[in-house]
Every structure is written in C-alpha cells, then in structure tokens.
Amino acid sequence: MSSQTNIQAQIKFANELCSKSDYAGAIKLLYPLINNAKNISREQQYQLYKSIGYNYYKLNDFSNAISAYEQTLSCHVNEAYIYNMLGYLYFYIDNDKSIENYLKGMTLTPNLKNFVMLTQIIIKSKKYELKDIKNIFEKYVNVFRPVILKGDIPYKYNPKDYDINKKLKIGYMSSDFYCHAMMTFLLPVIEHHNKDNFDVVFYHCSKKTDYVTDRIKNLGYPFNDCSDMSYKELAEKIHSDGVDILVDLSGYTHDAIWTLLFKPAPIICQYLGFLGTYGMKEVDYIIADEYTIPNNLAKYYTEKPMYIESGMNRFGFNTRKQNLPDITPLPCLKNGYITFGSFNDTSKLNTFSIKLWANVLKAVPNSKLLIYRTQLQQRDIDRITKLFNSYEIDMNRVIFDSTPTVGSHFKCYDFCDIALDPSPFSGLTITIEQAFMGVPTITLDYLTISAKGSGRINHMLGQDNLTAKTENEYIQIAKDLAQDIEKLKWYRKNYRQIISNSKLCTDYDTYVSDIESAYRKAWSDFCKG
User: Disulfide check for 265: which of 246, 465, 526, 529 has CB 3.0–4.6 Å away?
Assistant: First the structure.
C-alpha cells in the first residue's frame, strides 16, 4: 500500500471515529499524519487540520480548534467555511477577531445565517463606528434581497389610495411574545393603546408561549401564530390584513426579519429588539428619542428616527404583581471592601470593558468585582481571566458566580455595592432591576444605540451623575462613589422608591399618546407623499 493510499485510509478511519462521537480518538489518529508532512500533499494537510479543528470543536475545546483551523489557512485562504468556523469560535474568545473572520467568510461566500450572527456581534464591538455598521449591513442586505425575494416584487403603495384620517391598523411582529425582556417594554404600549383610534394585530413568529402570551391575547386583539409561515406567506398575511404600520420588535434576533423585504405594509418601523440599524431600505423608521439617536447621528441609520417626545421606553413587569425581595444592607458594611458587579450577558464583556474595569479595580484598592450570570461557562471564565491577567489584576479580586439564587433572581444583586455597565453594549433590563434593588449603575455614554440603554435609564431616574462621557470619568465616578458610603446607603434605601415613582414605571398614558402621535404623523407624511 502506498503512503498516499495509507494516509487516505487513515483519514477515512478518523472520520468514522468522528461519526461515532469518538473525537479524541480521531484527533489521536490524525496528528501523527500531520507530523509526517513530507508524505502528505498540501490538500491533505488542509483536510487534516480541518478535521482536527472540527473534532476539537465537538469536544468544546475552542482554543485548540482555533489553532487547527488557523493552520488550514497556510494551505487555503479561499475557504469560507474556515473563516465562518473561526468567526463562531472567536465569538467566545475575542469579539473583534470573530467579526474579522465572519467578514472574510462573507466576502468569499455570502451566507444568510452567518450574516445574522455578524450583525449581533458587530454592535457589541468598540472597533466599528456607526457609519461602518450601516455600510456593512446595507451591503449584505442588498446581496440577500434577491435571494429572499426569488423574483417576487415587493408590495407597492400609492398614497392617493389611502385616507389620511382613517383609523390606523398597527401590526406588531416578533418572536418574543412570551416572558422575554423585550415584553417589559412593550406591555406598557400595547396595554394602553387607544382602541377608538387604533386597531392592533400581533404576528407571533415563534411557537414559544406562556402566561405573558395569554396576557397579550386577553387584550382582545387578533393574535396570529405565524411560526410555520415562509417569509412570503407572512408578508401576504400582513398585507391581506390591511396593516398600515408594521412594527418589527426582534430584528436580526429572529428569522422573520427577512419578511420585511417584501414591504408588507405601507410603513414599517423597527423598535426594541435589535439595537442598531437594519440596513434595509424597506424599513422606514426606527422608534427612538433624541437622547438615544441625536439628530447629528441620524444619518448613520438606514431608517429615519421616529422620535418619541416623552422618551424611548417605559417599563412594566411581565407579571402584574411582581414580588420583590427585601433590600439588604450594603455588602461593604459586612465585607470591609467595595464589591463592584456585572450581571449582563458575558458576550457584552469585551476587551474594552474588561480593560475599563481593570482600571476601576486599580483605582479602588481592595475592591472586588463580581461577575454573575447563571449561564456562565468555563470558556467565559477562561477568556475573562486571560484579559484581567493581561492588565495585571490579581484574580483573587474577581469573583465568578453562576449559582442560581433561591427564590427571586433579584437576590443576586444583594452581593453588589455598585454595578459596572459594559460598553458599547450596555444593560437595560438589568440596569432597571439593579435600581429596584438599590444598586446604582455606572455607565459610559457612547454613540451607538446599543450603548445608550443605561444612560437613558439613569437620566429618567435623575441620576446623570452615574453616566460618564469618557473612560477617565467612568473610573473617577467609580472611585468617588466607592468612597462615599453614605451615598451608597442612600441608593440602597431610596432607589427602589425613586424608580417605582418615576415616569419610567408610571407615565404610560403620556408615553403611549406620544407613540400614537408619532404613528399618526408618519401616516400623514406618507399620505402627503
């Protein structure tokens, strides 16, 4: 048997081991073939590293998987699959490298699924400016538009055919009409609509339902299960229902977004679910306020901002009677040191945020940082540990915790004196929950809509002093607040009442009236051409 034939036989056997989930066995068989490089062709070397990378990936050993896949690039640089795998694997290790590889893969072979992944990663990066994001999104939406439409022509609308004073039908489309964070901001809207002036219809693009779904259905509006519909079928349904203004609430976090390319309603808006531009010319408006999208930045959105005068958000719990646990004393009074806390999804904790927090820890000696998330994985811990080590932080000062709390999940905030917000993808629901438990959130104001959530909440609560304009100011706010125990006691004692009585949690009628006025103005502008 020739050496080439033997190598092919070994590769085949390794693939059989892989198919039987013996990934370690496959790797053990493949590595000796790599080491015998003089007897293998460049193509075989590529296939070997590719196979080794896949087996490490199946073992959840992302570091070795990355190493193997990157070795394939010495043999081939035009394989989109490799870049896409590296994009996926780096997502858990290095946000910017993930984006870099996904973009290379997209350049070689545009892929719908990978583009969706890219959109959700890129808005969490500090490296990409608003104009870059807009250009990238528009570029690939233009690529995928004919793929989605498949020769069909989007619906067209003649403003002369419509009555400017008609009772408007508002359609809300989402995959999250259940106990989801988005619903805490939508419920105050849909439960306070003026039924005399507006009809409402829901398009649910998921099979997931629960008590919140029932709460929506009990409003008496049409509620459509669209989970099995194709993009075209959903567009036909929305269009045949005579929806005047369609509001998409999930963006690139759900597959139904591509329905929008059919232009199923005369006016399409996006709101809440995806914190960035869609890059779709079919979407007319993005619902926001001037704090979130200042006028001078509106040009970096494909959509036109639909400004809500009284602010972008109101908040209401998904349960009608939310039982909050009692607020406990400041942890620092017992511990003898300040505990900063992060409770956001770890995908938001990029290199920039970790560096910023490392500088906070250096500015506040003896302080500690609690990183809490029930979904915390070992790979998250390894990545964050590596970053803190690179900034010379003693890891005894960083606490990782994924232990589910007993009773209310709000209990996790009991162990934190001051919350630190990630950047440029800030918290929103988490920031509100922290306030209900007496914990202030320090945030960094930045240009993107994804960075504005906590700053917007601080502003509504009269706490602009917690929102920094620069990194140095962020560090200084943390340092000053850590030294002001009386101020921290004040937050612990008063913050729940402040947020409960704020317009964020009470002023629903004014807010919805402003939204309805914005809908009406958009309709008037449409009818006037």
Answer: 246
Encoded amino acid at 25, one letter:
G
pLDDT digits (tens, 9 = 90+) for 94-115: 888 999 999 999 999 999 999 9
pTM score, whole prediction: 0.94
All structural domains of the chain with their residue ranges: 3-135, 159-314+509-527, 331-503
- Letter for the amino acid at 471? E
CA distance 341 to 56: 33
Bridge partners of 270?
248, 286
Which residues does 462 contact at the CB level (< 8 Å), separation at least 6? 498, 502
Rounded distance, CA 183 to CA 272, Å? 9
CB contact burial 110-135 (16+ within 10 A = b; e otherwise): ebeebbbbbbbbbbbbbebebeebbe
Mean pLDDT across the stretch 77-90? 93
Q: Does residue 36 carry a pLDDT above 70?
A: no
CATH class of 159-314+509-527: alpha beta
Instruction: Please name the helix (run of DSSP H) or strand (run of DSSP E) that holds residue 232, with its range, or none.
Output: helix 231-240
Given pLDDT bands bounded at 50, 70 and 90, which one contains residue 6? confident
Could you tell me if 269 and 285 are in contact, meaning their C-beta atoms sit under 8 angstroms apart? yes
In the CATH hierarchy, which fold is given to the domain comprising 3-135? 1.25.40
Token pair for 99? 């984006």
Domains 159-314+509-527 and 331-503 share a fold: yes
CA dist 83 and 106 (Å) reads 9
| Dihedral sign of CA atoms 46, 49, 52, 54 in order | negative
- Contact status, residue 208 vs residue 178, Cβ threshold 8 Å: yes
Strands 267-270, 245-248: pairing kind: parallel
Q: How many CA atoms lie within 13 A of 218 on its CB side?
A: 8
CB 198 within 8 A of CB 279: no
Among the four given CATH numbers 3.40.50.2000, 1.10.10.1150, 3.90.800.10, 2.60.210.10, the one describing domain 331-503: 3.40.50.2000
Q: Is the peptide bond before 424 cis (omega within 30 degrees of 0)?
A: yes
For residue 304, which phi and psi values (nearest 5 degrees)?
A: -90, 130
